[in-house]
Amino acid sequence: MRRDPSNDTKVHNSVIAQGLGRGNAVEISFTLQELVEISEDIKVEGDINNCVTGIASLKDAVGGDLSFLGNPKYAADVKTSEASVIFLPLDYVGKAKEGQAYLRTANPSRVLAILTLKLERKLWPEVDPGIHPSAVVHDSANVDATSYVGPHCVIEEEAMIGAKTFLQAGVYVGRHVRVGGCCRLLANTTVQDYCEIGDAVILQSGCVIGSDGYGYETENGCHIKIPQVGRVVLEDHVEVGANTTIDRARFQETRIGAGTKIDNLVQIAHNVHTGLNCLIVAQVGISGSTVLGNNVVIGGQAGLSGHLSVGDGVSIAGGSALLRSLNAGEVVRGSPAFPINDYQRMVVLQKRLPEFYKRLKTLEQIYLSPDNP
Amino acid sequence: MRRDPSNDTKVHNSVIAQGLGRGNAVEISFTLQELVEISEDIKVEGDINNCVTGIASLKDAVGGDLSFLGNPKYAADVKTSEASVIFLPLDYVGKAKEGQAYLRTANPSRVLAILTLKLERKLWPEVDPGIHPSAVVHDSANVDATSYVGPHCVIEEEAMIGAKTFLQAGVYVGRHVRVGGCCRLLANTTVQDYCEIGDAVILQSGCVIGSDGYGYETENGCHIKIPQVGRVVLEDHVEVGANTTIDRARFQETRIGAGTKIDNLVQIAHNVHTGLNCLIVAQVGISGSTVLGNNVVIGGQAGLSGHLSVGDGVSIAGGSALLRSLNAGEVVRGSPAFPINDYQRMVVLQKRLPEFYKRLKTLEQIYLSPDNP
Amino acid sequence: MRRDPSNDTKVHNSVIAQGLGRGNAVEISFTLQELVEISEDIKVEGDINNCVTGIASLKDAVGGDLSFLGNPKYAADVKTSEASVIFLPLDYVGKAKEGQAYLRTANPSRVLAILTLKLERKLWPEVDPGIHPSAVVHDSANVDATSYVGPHCVIEEEAMIGAKTFLQAGVYVGRHVRVGGCCRLLANTTVQDYCEIGDAVILQSGCVIGSDGYGYETENGCHIKIPQVGRVVLEDHVEVGANTTIDRARFQETRIGAGTKIDNLVQIAHNVHTGLNCLIVAQVGISGSTVLGNNVVIGGQAGLSGHLSVGDGVSIAGGSALLRSLNAGEVVRGSPAFPINDYQRMVVLQKRLPEFYKRLKTLEQIYLSPDNP
C-alpha cells in the first residue's frame, strides 16, 4: 500500500496526521543519517528513499514511517510492515526489503525513547517564564523568576516555587508548600498546605497531594475526625499520575522516595513510605503506615493492607491483595497473595476441581457402595 | 396515605420536594393526556384526578406522583404503590386502583427516559452563548460564536471549540485541542494538548483526557520517562465519567469509538482502542495497547492486561481480571477470568471443598487404616 | 541517641522538622502538666526535663518528642523508644526510663486525637470571612457573610452557602445548590446543580458531587442517555475523600446518611442510600440503588452490586465482591463474598488442594490399580 495523502484512512493513524503535523504544528522529518546518530551501537542494513515523516506501530506504519520491535510478541509483524525504517534488536533474523532500512541496536525501546524525546521538545516548546495575570499569588509567596505560573493558578501564603518549574493552569499550591525546581504541575492539580515537593517532579492533571488521611475515633457509633497534621513529601524525580491521591500523614510524613513513578487513580494512605524507584501501577491502593523498600513493583488494582513492611525488589502482581509483610525479593500473586509458584499451582488445581470430584465419586461408588463390605 | 405538603416526611423523597420544584425552581406538571402522547403504543387503564406533579420509585411514590416498573424484580411493589400513574410492561397482571392510572407499553424504561428528557430540559435550560469575562482564551484559539465558555475556563493556543458546545467552569482545553459541536464539558475537566474530541461528547466533572501514558525505560534500577507524544481521540457521542482518566498514546493514538460510554473513575491506558458502543462501568482499568471490538461490556472494577485483543460483543463480569485475548461473543468472569460456565462450576465446587475433604477422609479411614490390608 | 539539630537525619522525621515548626510556622511546645490536663483519667509515671516539642511514632521519636501506643502490635517499641513522653494503655507492663514520662489512659488514641486537634488549630488558623475578588458569584446566589469563598471559586445561580463555611479555591458550586454551615470544601471540588449539603460536611480536594448517573437505554446496539434529573444529598457531618465521585439520582436522590465517612477514590452510583455513620474505605464501588443501613463498614476496594439491601452494622472486608443482600450484623469476605467463617475455611482448604490431590491419588493407586479386584 502506498501513501496517498489525499485519500488514505491508514494515514489517519500516523503521527503526521494526528494534528501534530498538520497546519502550523510540528513537522516530523528525520534523515537516515540523523537516526543512525542517535546511538553509537546502531548498525544499518538497507537504505531509504526519503526522510522519515511519521512514527507508527509495525502494523499501522505506511511508507515514510519509522517503526520498531520492542516487544518480541510482535516479531512476526516486522516482515509485513510497510515502515521505511525499523529499529530491531541485534538477534532479529530477517532482511530489509528494497527501499527499507533495518537499524539494529541492543535496545530498540531505548533508542525510540531518545527519538520521542526529541519529538517531545518540538511538540511542547519551552514556555516563557512569568506569572499569568489571572493567577492569584499571595504576597508572602516566593516564585522563582524563571518559572511559569499559568492561568487561574493559586499560590497561597508562604509557599515557595523553585527555578524553571511549570504550573500549567488551575493548579492549587497551599500555604507553606515548597515546590522544587524543574517540576511540571499540570492543569487542575492540588498540593495542600505544608507539603514538600522535590526537584524534577511531575504531577499529572487532577492529582491531589496532601488530602487528609482517613482517621477517626469511634465513640458510641459516631466517628470523630482525627486531625491529620502531618504532610506529604515527594522526593526528586517522582511522577504522580492523573487523579491519584496521596494523603497527608496523621503526624510526621507520608513520603514517596526519589524516582518512584505512580500511575493514575492510585490511592496512597497516610503515613505510607515508599523507597526509591518503586513502580506503582494504576488503581493500586496502599493502606496507612505501610512501608515499601526500594524498587518495589506493584501491578494495577492491587491492594495492600496497613502497617505492612515490604522489602526491596518485591513484586506484587496486578489485582493481588497483600495482607502480610514480605521479605526482599519476594514475588507474590493472588487474593490473598501467595508466593507466585504456590499461586500458580493453586489456580491449576482449582481448574481441575470438577475432575477431582469425579474421581472421588468413582472411588466412593466402588468402595462405599452397600455391596462393598 | 395522603400527601400533606406541610408535614410529611415521605414528600421529602419526591422530585417535587427535591429543590427541583421548590421556590422558583421547576414546576413538574403533566396531565394524563400529555403522558399518553409520549409514545404511540401506550394503552391507558383507569384515570387520575389531578395532574402528575412528581416522579418517584414505586415504594416512595405518594399521590400525585408518577412511577414505573422497569425491573421485574420490583413487580410486587406495583400493587401497594400510591403513585397516581404507573408505567407498566404489557404483560404485567393487575388492575389500577381508583384514582390511579396504569399506562402499559412495550418498554416502560424507554418511555420514562423520554419523560425525564423533557424534565431535564426544564431543569437545565439552555445557556446563552458567550465567553465569561473570567475565562482565559488564547488569541489564536477559535471558539464558535454559538458556544458557551464558563467562568475560569482556559483555552490555549490554536485550540478549536465547535458549535453549541458548553464548557461549564474551570475547564482546561490545552494547545491544539479540537472539541466538536454540541459537547458538554462539565466543571473542572481537563483536556490536554493535541487531543481531539468529536461531536456530542459529554465529559463529566474532573475527568482527565490526555494525561501522559505510564511508560519508562529502566536503566540500573532507575526509571527514565518515555515521552508520550501521541494523543487521545474521543469519537462522536462518547461519554466519559467523573474523575476518569484516559492517557495519551506513547505515539499515535488512544482512541475511544463512537457511542462508547465510560463510567466514573475508569483508567484507560495509552494506546488502548475501543470499538463502537462499548460500555465500561466504574473503576475498570484497561492496560496499555489493549484493543476492544464493538459493543464490548465490562463490569465495574474489572481489570484488563495490556496488549490484548477483545472481540465484538464480549462481556466481562465486574471484578474480573482478564489476562488473555477473547473471541467475539465470549462471556467471562473471575480472577483470572474463565468462561462464565466454568467459573460458576468452580465457585460451586469451591464452596463444597469442606464436604470433599470429609468424604476423602472417610475413604482413607476405612481403606488406609492399619486394620485394612 | 541525642538530638543534634545541626546534623541528624532522624530529626528530619519529627514534626518539628516538617516545615510545621520551621521559620515562621508553628512552634509545638507542651509542658507535662498541659499534657496531663487533656483527659481526666491520665495517670503520670516519671518526669521530663523540658517541654515536648514534637510528635512522632515510637520508632522515630527522639528526645523532646511525644509518642503513643495505639496499636498493641507496636508494644515492643515502647521500651526502646527515645520519646520523652509516651501515652500508654492502662494494661501496658513496663517502666519509664529516667527523663521520660509514661502517661497511662484508657484510650491513648483518643487522647492523641485531642492533642492533634489543638495542634491543627495552630497549623490552620481561622480564615477571615469574605469573598475573594477572583471568585465568580452569581447575583442570585446567597453566601453567608461569615463564610469564606477563596480564589477562582464559582457559585452559580440561586446557590446558597451557610454560615462559617470555607471554600478553599477553585471550588464549583452549581445552580440551586445548598451548602450548610461550618462546611469545608477544599480546592478543586465540584458540587453539581441542585445538590444539597448539610452542616459540618468536609469535601476533600477533587471530589465530585452530583455527576450524572450511568444510565442508558440500548436500542439496536446504540446507548441512549437517560437523563439523570435527581440530585445528591449529603447529610450533616459527612466527609467525602479526595477524587471520590457521587452520582446524582436518575430521579429522586442519592443520599449519604449523617456521620458517614467516605475515603478517597470511592464510586457511589445513582440512587444509592447509606445510613448513619457508615465507613467506606478507599476505592470502594457501590452500584446503583443499593441501600446501606447504619454503621456499615466497607473495606478498601470492595465492590457492591446494584439493588442490594445491606443491614445495620454489616462489615464487608476489603477487596470483597458483594453480590447479594445481607442481614444486620453479617460479616463477609471474598469474591464473591461469603460469611467470614466460611471464607476462612475455604481459603485454608484451597491452600491444601495439592495435598488433597496427592491423597486422592494414593487411594486410587491402591484401590483402582489393575492388581486390585
What features would you describe in this structure?
- In chain A, the strands form six sheets. In chain A, strands 6-9-12-15-18-23-26-29-32-35-37-38 form a twelve-stranded mixed β-sheet. Chain A has a ten-stranded parallel β-sheet with strand order 7-10-13-16-19-24-27-30-33-36, with no helix packed on it.
- In chain A, 54% of the residues are buried.
- Chain A is 14% helix and 26% strand.
- With 373 residues, chain A is α/β, with parallel strands linked by helices.
- Chain A has two domains: 15-123, MurE/MurF, N-terminal domain (Udp-n-acetylmuramoylalanyl-d-glutamate--2,6- Diaminopimelate Ligase, Chain: A, domain 1, 3-Layer(aba) Sandwich), CATH 3.40.1390; 130-342, UDP N-Acetylglucosamine Acyltransferase, domain 1 (3 Solenoid), CATH 2.160.10.
- Residues 1-25 of chain A have low confidence and may be disordered.
- In chain A, a hairpin with a 4-residue loop joins strand 37 and strand 38 (338-339).
- Chain A starts with 31 loop residues before the first helix and ends in a 6-residue tail after the last helix.
- At the A-C interface, strand 20, strand 21, helix 4 and helix 5 of A face helix 3, helix 4 and helix 5 of C.
Q: For this entry, what is the oligomeric state of its chains?
A: homotrimer
Structural domains of chain A: how many: 2
Low-confidence stretches of chain A: 1-25
In percent, how helical is the residue content of chain A? 10-25%
- Backbone shape of chain A: flat
Total helices of chain A: the number is 5
Name the strands of the widest sheet of chain A in spatial order.
6-9-12-15-18-23-26-29-32-35-37-38
- Structural class determined from secondary elements of chain A: alpha/beta
